[in-house]
Model the fold of this input.
Amino acid sequence: MTTNGGATVEFRGVSKRYADHTAVDDLSFTVPAGRICVLGGRGGVGDGAALRRLGRGAGQAVGVLRRVGVGGVGEEPALLRLSSRYVVQLVGLFAHHTMAENIAPVPPLLGGPAARSAARVDELLALIGLDQKVGRRYPAQLSGGERQRVGVARALAAEPPVLLMDEPFGAVDPIVRERLQLEFLRLHRVQRTTVLFVTHDIDEAIMLGDRIAVMRAGRLVQYAPPGELLAKPADEFVAQFVGTDRGLKLLGLLTVGGADVDASVDRASLPPKAPVLVASTTLRDALGQILTNASECAAVVDADGRYIGALSLEQISAMLRQGYRP
Done:
């Protein structure tokens, strides 16, 4: 698998206006190379407009927007747009083209040979977990989830340094959506593309984002890793956006392996119904298992199943009080 890797994206005083409406107002933040930045908030907050600004969409724009490692200054606008790829909610596949033909157009635009394009199609179909025979099918012959995966594959076909995703999984049912989210994270671990991802779903933002940019009325309210956003919301708007259950969401980011397990507690002294947890278990799942089993603690074991200590409800509560620790 070859890849160009991600590019650092810098917004510096970026604004975007449509007639008398300001969609993005003085936006400044940096997305590190190879990271996923989620732009979120409530509908109409300017997150989608920020993505269109990066893609050089319509509207009047001011400010500095750089993609370090890509160029940006002095490049031809068409090539600048091709250096990023856009994935939207309704995919936008060509109905009269096969899946392979939908994926294939981008490499030739960048000067790639036909043989390389065909090989890249097969490579991407395998990467998104679809059989090569899917490449001969048409959009109407695939499920919504499969079409969405092909849309992602098409965006990755040119090995872009920046991937722009505007609510790409919003049009599928919750079960398929979770599957696509996990598949996307797996792809990202391979590609390491820099991603700007718009969603109004806080759970999706926390699951996918390395950084979350919360926007309100076109302005940036807070830009932080998910844990910091949950533990220390900048204001009431951010607190409402992350939800009243932000404590439970934060526990979903912390694991048993990071807890202060009490090794002095003998396993034989634990309640008979105490669940058994491994280091990778989130504290949210640990809490659920302890409460479901009507226990006050759980046994924690290592990768080989050896008992290493006990985790109590009080210890979980203490970690929640400690909050986010970078």
